[in-house]
Specification:
Pfam families: AAA_30 (PF13604). With 1242 residues, the protein is an alpha/beta fold. The strands form 12 sheets. It has a 6-stranded parallel β-sheet with strand order 14-13-15-16-12-17, covered by helices on one side. Strands 8-1-3-2-9 form a 5-stranded antiparallel β-sheet, sandwiched between helices. A 5-stranded antiparallel β-sheet has the order 26-25-24-23-29. Strand 25 and strand 26 form a beta hairpin. Helix 5 crosses helix 13, helix 18 runs parallel beside helix 19 and helix 23 packs parallel to helix 25. The longest helix is centred in the C-terminal third of the chain and has 41 residues. The radius of gyration is 39 Å and the shape is globular. 38% of the residues are buried.
Length: 1242
């Protein structure tokens, strides 16, 4: 495989997918074979029989040569994979071609095969066509296996699947050849074979039938009595089972079930991601091959047949497969075969291009097969006349590779294949100029072949012949019906091309996106982002392999000279909402596209994706083909998703320029973890933007700075909400704040273009219903259609979807709706796209999207997996629409709204108020409904916000080992420095610094501001019972140490409470307290660290530790590291130096044992003393008990850290022993005790 992929990539001069098109491990090959099978199905109809033969090596008949080889090599069966695989493959191939079909040269096709019957058959009966495929057992049906499909965990043995088309089934003696019953006692050998190989785990695949086997019409009906049905006995071919002694399975039908079953596995036996690998021409052959092998998991039989593909092909067929990539009319010059078709002298004027391809050979001549057949059958008519009247018989199978059936390009390719023409202009019709370009080819198909495209049954029949599922057929027919109706509206003049809106290349910008990114005036910090992104893209472009260049030595030397030596950096553009992150990235994206880079964008919501699609940029599907990937709203990514993205980049050779954009102070995703929790976040280069450019007024800026990291006080809340109630001057009638119809009507009169924003799905549905009722009360409705079930709040219980009932959507002219599914990305039929209803048509809802295009929204059928604990699936057909007057807060994150009416119906959501207000540009652009209180404006997680902007905190986090970090209660990246006091939109430095007034105002683990700078928290503390004395104690500490700070603290108290004087009096009455002590200085190194250092352990043995004395309840804090991946023994270290280093490590190991023994004795003594005090009732000993328990706890903590150190030492000793043995160094003599007496004494 290394040679095949490397040779195809470096020597063929073709794209990798095309160069490997004939390799059995390539998805391109199986796609071609599948299309050939589809063409065969269209030519001759349904298959008659589906047969599977699975060998069992222990009973399989082996040739004497194979037995001789096994005997001479002293091997048993299954121990000679190459010989046995080739032998079994040969037997299976000959059993199919000879025993079953009579298709080889040594059999007489009229008498000597299974499907000829015992006494011969009439002329014309027997095998009409057949297709077989060799596969490898992957263990998907293994009993009790829970592994996913397409994951190799089977034996890998080869087996064969066979489809057979038969003529005149009643004339064949099939009931005598195929059975589905358990043999009786009169045939003991056959009974043992059936009971040992034919009983299935689940079912037999045949209905119960007591009558004798017979053939009715073209359907084989087997006798399948009760005992065989209960035992799940699979049907079998008697001769095959007796001769090969293996498992045989036979299915027969007159419908498409056989083809569906056969095509279900018509793909390579590995993950579909391999198909994406072959699409990537920029990846190296090493990267592609490594990824293919890691996903492919081939077993020995499959590897053997890969090498023997010439002698034993995995695809067997009677017909000849011809691959044809269908061109698009009028796109470029037609290939030679199409030109030969137009000028062919022997084909009739009614012969289509597809029929011509089934008959033509090299040079535009009639295929040699038909020439021989004409001569063999002694046809009197001339060859040219006979070939034009000959029906298709499957001699030539055309694998026509076309675009997706859901695109208009497919219609153009179908037109070229199925409508006869002598020149391309014969396919054109002037009426097609009346329709938009997106419907041009469909319109031509309707005008040229209306009998097919307007007949649903004819279309369904063709889709069934292609083995399409019922769900796909229903959705495609709905899509096609909507497009046909829209095309007919243009043809009739009901619609005009000018009304279809601007083309895709000139779409107007959506809300929150600039009209033309290159014309933006960027600030200096935004320019720095653009420059950093451009440099990353430059490195990605330089790392491209010269696929498009001439594959010569100068091209490769040029690539080596320009290829970067380091990986492309990962960037993160961070900053508050509205700071211009998206604008800067858009400029970088447009610049990258202009330089030929392949750019992909990943967005968490459909609204953001729709915004980026306005710039004609692809949304992200896979990583490797892209030069630049932008991931928006990084704050909503979970830790696993972030790690997965970096892993994808690693698999792409770290070439792709990966850029994250977002703000960790905004709403998180559904997962509680974030990218900050990942150990790989330190690999990201952070680019910070600080200016809120979206915000256009000082008042709104003050509110955003306040809400970003703190909860407002009551006074601040009043200022924040002043003049913003909706409707204006009308308090809510409902105590819970739920709006009424009258409220919504008045709001829409005051602000007609407002967008309602709420937090929950139920609240969004209520506001959408009220807004639609307010807009269209008294107006006639177009009708009611089933809307998106996911928009129906009644389907959910506690956030879980337990029903799939469609949303009853009542439609009106000019009603605002939102599309909820991706059905046609090229024409704005995408999730999150806003639209206005124009009319309700027979096959869909006609809307005008925000991009100005007129499209028809058709119903979509989908299976919904319910979260009811039973895995129930419900199939529903509904229009992918929901009302567009209200949306959830998560869906507008990252967007700019012209006006917003906010209903925060759920309290205590961190960052909800900040995210909502940051969508506006001016303070006048938002209003609220309901009763908003301080709990609705919960502050964002301060630790996350600080960690996103603190490189020192990230470095500190990165330097902390996993075992210690996971046990800490402190959030990741927390700093203990107060951010200061916000006043008038500006931040003032904190005067309550711990180095100045001790611990009286230090920040806590959960807040980034001290208690006197965060007035909201100060007010909360004063409202709690018993906390006033705590604040008074802090005031006393300030007064003792710094009167200036004391007066500032009194002023802050006066802003939140009227009892400042009372608190001052309470502070004066207090004595000096512990809060007033100056902070203690931590020692540079503890005794434990010195002890380890004296043992010669630090920095010499490959394991590093630090034991520091902290000021918390824990006595020691130990930080340890794993061994580095590199060899700790230097290459130039001789045996003596290595032995000395190992003795040092051994000394530390022994010293650890002694320290542990001392601690054990101390613990035993303390526990004995505790037991004595427990029975001592004298009050004299009562004060000693808490101190004793605290001391005992500290010693036990030291024991736990020593246990951790012991595991590291064990690992170090084992590693050094292994390395010394690998290098052949003699092991030094070791003493049982430490060699250093001083260390032992300590």
């Amino acid at each position: 495989m290394w040679s095949s992929i490397g040779g195809a990539k470096n020597a063929s001069g073709l794209a990798l997918r095309e160069a490997l098109a004939n390799k059995p491990f390539s998805p391109e090959m199986w796609k071609t074979k599948h299309l050939a099978l589809v063409d065969l199905q269209k030519q001759i109809g349904w298959p008659s029989v589906f047969i599977t033969i699975s060998p069992y090596e222990w009973s399989m008949p082996y040739h004497s040569s194979v037995e001789d080889e096994l005997q001479k090599t002293l091997a048993a069966r299954l121990q000679a994979p190459a010989t046995e695989t080739l032998h079994i493959t040969h037997i299976l191939t000959q059993a199919v071609k000879g025993l079953l079909l009579g298709a080889n040269d040594g059999m007489k096709p009229q008498r000597e095969h299974v499907f000829a019957g015992h006494h011969g058959v009439a002329d014309g009966a027997g095998v009409r066509h057949w297709v077989a495929r060799l596969e490898f057992q992957d263990g998907k049906r293994k009993r009790g296996s829970a592994r996913p499909a397409q994951f190799y965990h089977g034996s890998g043995r080869v087996h064969v699947h066979l489809l057979v088309w038969l003529r005149d089934l009643p004339a064949l003696d099939l009931p005598a050849q195929i059975a589905a019953e358990l043999p009786g006692a009169d045939a003991p050998e056959m009974s043992d074979l059936v009971r040992g190989s034919q009983l299935d785990w689940e079912s037999s695949g045949w209905p119960r039938r007591e009558e004798p086997s017979d053939v009715k019409g073209n359907l084989l009906r087997l006798r399948h009595p009760q005992d065989a049905h209960a035992a799940h006995c699979r049907a079998y071919v008697v001769d095959v089972l007796q001769s090969l002694r293996c498992h045989v399975d036979v299915l027969a039908s007159d419908g498409r079930a056989l083809l569906l079953k056969y095509c279900a596995s018509y793909l390579p036996k590995f993950s579909d991601s391999f198909a994406q690998e072959l699409l990537n021409d920029q990846a190296t052959d090493f990267v592609v091959t490594r990824r293919v092998l890691s996903d492919y998991h081939p077993h020995q039989p499959e590897m053997v047949l890969q090498l023997a593909a010439q002698q034993h092909p995995q695809f067997l067929s009677h017909g000849f497969v011809k691959k044809f990539i269908v061109p698009l009319p009028w796109e470029k010059e037609m290939p030679q075969v199409v030109q030969d078709y137009m000028s062919s002298p022997w084909r009739s004027s009614s012969m289509s291009l597809l029929e011509y391809l089934r008959r033509v050979g090299a040079g535009g001549q009639i295929q040699q097969r038909y020439r021989r057949l004409h001569k063999l059958r002694k046809i009197d008519a001339p060859l040219e006349e006979w070939i034009n009247s000959l029906p298709a018989e499957g001699e030539i199978l055309v694998a026509a590779i076309a675009a997706s059936r859901t695109t208009d390009r497919y219609c153009g390719q179908w037109l070229l294949l199925n409508v006869p023409f002598r020149a391309l202009d014969d396919l054109w019709d002037e009426r097609a100029a009346r329709v938009p370009a997106a419907l041009k080819f469909l319109t031509l198909c309707l005008l040229k072949r209306p009998g097919f495209w307007k007949a649903p049954q004819a279309l369904r029949a063709e889709l069934e012949l292609e083995a399409s599922t019922e769900l796909y057929i229903e959705n495609f027919q709905a899509l096609l019906a909507s497009r046909i109706e829209l095309a007919e509206a243009f043809l009739s003049g009901e619609l005009n091309v000018d009304e279809s809106g601007p083309s895709l290349l000139s779409r107007p910008a959506l809300s929150g996106m600039q009209a033309s990114a290159p014309q933006l005036a960027l600030a200096s910090d935004q320019d720095f982002v653009v420059v950093a992104a451009r440099r990353a893209v430059d490195k990605a472009l330089q790392a491209r392999w010269p696929e498009e260049e001439d594959m010569d030595a100068p091209a490769w030397l040029s690539w080596v000279a320009r290829a970067p030596a380091t990986a492309t950096p990962v960037l993160a553009v961070l900053g508050p909402a509205g700071s211009g992150k998206s604008a800067a990235v858009e400029v970088a994206v447009q610049a990258a596209v202009g330089r030929g880079a392949h750019v992909g964008i990943a967005c968490p919501t459909g609204m953001l994706a729709s915004s980026y699609r306005a710039f004609k940029i692809e949304t992200l599907d896979m990583m490797e083909p892209y030069d630049m990937v932008v991931v928006d709203e990084v704050g909503q990514l979970s830790k696993d998703t972030f790690d997965r993205l970096l892993a994808l980049r690693d698999a792409a050779g770290r070439r792709t320029a990966l850029i994250f954009v977002g703000d960790f102070a905004q709403l998180r995703g559904m997962d509680p973890s974030t990218a900050l929790d990942s150990d790989r976040w330190v690999e990201v280069t952070k680019l910070h933007l600080h200016t809120m450019r979206r915000c256009k007024c000082a008042e709104l800026r003050w509110k955003l700075e306040l809400l970003r990291s703190a909860s407002p006080t009551s006074k601040q809340l009043r200022r924040l909400l002043r003049t913003h109630r909706a409707p204006q001057g009308v308090p809510p009638a409902d105590p819970a704040g739920q709006p009424t119809l009258e409220d919504i009507q008045q709001i829409l009169q005051e602000t007609p273009h407002t967008l309602f924003v709420t937090y929950t799905r139920a609240a969004a549905q209520l506001l959408n219903d009220l807004a639609a009722q307010a807009h269209f009360e008294g107006k006639p409705a177009l009708g009611t259609v089933p809307g998106d079930p996911e928009a129906n709040a009644s389907n959910y219980r506690a956030g879980a979807m337990v029903h799939a009932d469609p949303y009853p959507l009542q439609l009106f002219v000019h009603m605002r709706v939102t599309i909820t599914k991706n059905e046609d990305k090229e024409h704005s039929f995408v999730n999150g796209m806003g639209a206005w209803v124009r009319r309700l048509r027979r096959s869909g809802v006609e809307v005008v999207t925000d991009t100005g295009e007129v499209i028809l929204i058709h119903p979509v059928t989908r299976d919904y997996l319910l979260e009811d604990g039973e895995g129930t699936r419900e199939r529903r057909t509904a229009y992918p629409l929901r009302p567009g007057y209200c949306t959830n807060l998560h869906k507008v994150q990252g967007a700019t709204l012209q006006h917003m009416t906010l209903w925060l119906n759920t309290p205590f959501v961190p960052g909800a108020g900040y995210v909502a207000l940051s969508r506006a540009q001016h303070d006048r652009d938002w209003r609220y409904i309901g009763n908003l209180q301080r709990r609705h404006f919960a502050a964002c997680h301060a630790a996350a916000a600080i960690a996103a902007t603190s490189d020192s905190a990230e470095k500190k986090r990165a330097d902390t080992p996993h075992s210690i970090r996971d046990k800490r209660a402190v959030p990741s990246g927390m700093v203990r420095t107060c951010e200061g006091f916000i006043e008038g939109g500006a931040s003032r430095p904190c005067v309550f610094n711990s180095t100045r007034v001790g611990r009286a105002a230090q920040t806590s683990k959960a807040f980034s501001r001290c208690v006197f700078c965060d007035l909201g928290r100060l007010e909360d503390i004063l409202e709690k019972p018993g906390m006033r004395s705590n604040i008074a104690a802090r005031l006393r500490a300030f007064k003792v140490q710094d009167l200036e700070v004391f007066h500032v603290a009194l002023a802050r108290l006066g802003e939140v409470t009227a009892d400042a004087a009372e608190l001052e009096a309470l502070a004066d009455a207090m004595p000096d307290c512990a809060l007033g002590r100056p902070p203690r200085k931590r020692p540079a190194a503890s005794a434990g660290a010195e002890l380890v250092s004296r043992a010669g352990y630090r920095g010499r043995a490959g394991v590093f530790c630090r034991v520091d004395r902290g000021c918390s309840s824990a006595a020691f804090q130990l930080e340890t590291y794993r061994f580095p991946r590199t060899d700790p023994i230097a290459k130039d270290m001789d045996a003596a130096a290595a032995a000395q280093s190992f003795r040092t490590l051994w000394a530390a190991f022994c010293l650890h044992s002694q320290v542990a023994a001392v601690l054990d004795r101390i613990v035993a003594s303390l526990e004995a003393l505790e037991a004595v005090l427990a029975v001592e009732m004298s009050p004299l000993w009562a004060p000693l008990r808490p101190a004793l328990r605290a001391t005992l706890g500290r010693v036990r903590t030291m024991q736990r850290y020593l246990d951790l150190l012991r595991r590291r030492l064990d690992l170090g000793v084992e590693r050094w022993l292994r390395l010394m043995l690998d290098r052949g160094y003699p092991l030094p003599a070791l003493a049982a005790d430490p060699p250093d007496p001083a260390a032992e004494e300590d």
